[in-house]
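Meet today's protein:

…
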Amino acid sequence: MVPMFHLSTQSLSQIINKLISVIMEEHAVLLNNLNSLQWFNREKLEYYAQAIHNKGAPMNNCWGFIDGTARKICRPSENQEEYYSGHKGITA
């Protein structure tokens, strides 16, 4: 990922760790009890992974993707570094 994003391994690690923290802070209730979700079971995940693999993905156990689409937002008054991506001079 270093050549693709032109970031150091440390920066990539920090980004991934932050993403995991945000996911856990915002959605831990869903992740802690996956049995309550009808669409999220082993059979469905295997189906999704097979569909992705059939479209040409080299892996056969990938069932989803993180959407990294940057969205413009108003300039935050606090914690700007949490939102500013540095990409095209916009906040994301």
Summary: The chain has a mean pLDDT of 81.
